[in-house]
Specification:
This protein is an alpha/beta fold and 283 residues long. It is 34% helix and 18% strand. It has ten helices and eleven strands. The strands form three sheets. The chain has a seven-stranded parallel β-sheet. A two-stranded antiparallel sheet has the order 5-6. It is globular, with a radius of gyration of 18 Å. The structure holds zinc ion (2 copies).
């Protein structure tokens, strides 16, 4: 069975409103794209910072600008009007773990996707508040990014670690450390392996300047070697991208001998066989 657990029903633009996108008609468009690609299990994971309740966790200026919708109304929509799994993409905010835990525990999510988008108050993947404006070197940014990813895993807040090498999102437009990058992955892997959290294999990187899945194959191999379970996602923000690049991701998993994917329900994880060939409707 194939999954796509990291889906957004709307784009990241502030003009993409809940009223327009959190509708059954829009969910139908995602479902239709998924069934064409043989993906049976879908879950939605909107950004936590688009919801007002996130301001109890962090009041970064970006979050203050973004936090407009009601999280409980969104959860009720997903549960009552769709057949999607209910997830959320929650940021790891160092020092605000308790507040995030409180927010998450108050809702009955099927899973929580944990993301490192910020290193302290500097963004890894945005031009605004960019870490690249203040960083001394690529080495420093990469070291801090993967250390923070390890902390995110250890926090115990999340079921899946999202886009595990997001720091490469800019491709050649930002400096990148030289040589074998596995030395950077190591501290993140330690946190992931110790905590038992799953890692996301995300095809979103193929659509970004990085032109590579997250995590890089070398990092994925390190995870697989120590038995970390894999969750497969596209991080689509529009129906056309549901399951995009899955052929490549599945070939990568097959080459590493991974035959199972994570499936989540009410924050319980089990592994389901990927199976072979066309998977439409299979379980
Ligand atoms: Zn993200
Ligand atoms: Zn996302």
């Amino acid at each position: 069975m194939l999954t796509d657990y990291h889906l957004h029903l709307r784009s990241d633009a502030l003009t993409a409103t809940a009223a327009e996108h959190f509708t059954q008609a829009n969910v139908e468009r995602y479902r239709a794209a998924a069934s064409e690609r043989g993906i049976a299990e879908l879950g939605v994971s909107e950004h936590v910072y688009r919801f007002r309740q996130a301001l109890a966790v962090w009041r970064h200026p970006f979050w203050l600008e973004q936090a407009r919708d009601d999280l409980d109304a969104h959860c009720a929509f997903v549960r009552e009007q769709t057949d999607l799994r209910l997830g959320i993409e929650a940021d790891f905010v160092a020092g605000r773990e308790e507040q995030m835990a409180t927010l998450l525990a108050a809702r009955d999510f099927d899973y929580v996707v944990g993301s490192v988008h910020f290193l302290r108050d500097r963004a890894v993947d945005m031009d605004d508040y960019s870490v690249w404006q203040t960083a001394r070197s690529a080495e420093e940014v990469w070291r801090r990014y993967f250390q923070t990813l390890g902390e995110a895993a250890r926090s115990g807040l999340f079921d899946v670690i999202a886009h595990p090498d997001l720091v490469k999102v800019w491709g050649r437009e930002r400096p990148r450390p030289e040589g074998d990058l596995r030395r950077y992955y190591e501290p993140a892997l330690e946190g992931i392996a110790e905590s038992g959290v799953a890692v996301e294999l995300s095809t979103a990187g193929l659509r970004k300047r990085a032109r590579e899945v997250y995590p890089a194959p070398a990092f994925l191999q390190m995870c697989v070697d120590v038995g970390v379970p894999v969750a497969l996602s596209s991080d689509a923000h529009r129906p056309e991208d549901v399951g995009a690049g899955y052929e490549q991701a599945l070939a990568l998993l097959e080459g590493m001998g991974v035959g199972e994917l994570c499936v989540f329900e009410r924050r319980e994880r089990r592994l389901a066989a990927i199976g072979t060939g066309s998977q439409a409707g299979a379980s």
